[in-house]
Amino acid sequence: MLSLSNDASTAVEAEGDDLCSLTRLIGDPDGAKETVKKLRALMKKIEKEDSDSEIGVFKAAADPCRIRILKLLKEGELCVCEIMTALNRPQSTTSHHLSILREAGLIRERRAGKWLHYRLSDGAVIELLNQAKLLKDK
After folding, report:
1. What is the pTM of this model?
2. Residue 52: how many CB atoms within 10 A of its CB?
3. Do residues 43 and 65 share a domain?
4. Are residues 26 and 58 in the same domain?
5. Which residue range(s) make up the domain with 33?
6. Cα–Cα distance between 19 and 26 in angstroms, integer?
7. What order of strands is seen across the sheet that includes strand 115-120?
């Protein structure tokens, strides 16, 4: 008799449960089996992809203050003191938000003497903001 590891046994049980649930919902056992097979293959592909960068971008953009910073930078390069003045936030808070945006790849910095100037890293950031607005307006 073939013995499955605990993980493999759990996966087979989960697939059987998914198949039963989907068959019950759509009423077609063959269609359900094919759908489960396609979904499993798709999930394997998704799990192999490195989603950390995408997650980082969305996490960084999920804060209202950071969205305001991105919108400010749509108008052009600004130094930290200009950003903190516009936001009416302390330097430490502003720098923290800028650090998160920079680590996510949404902004770039340029040093000019003791000053740091920030700008959007790419036109795709503007497009991201525009698309978010379009999705909300629909």
Report:
1. 0.70
2. 8
3. no
4. no
5. 6-48
6. 10
7. 78-79, 115-120, 107-112
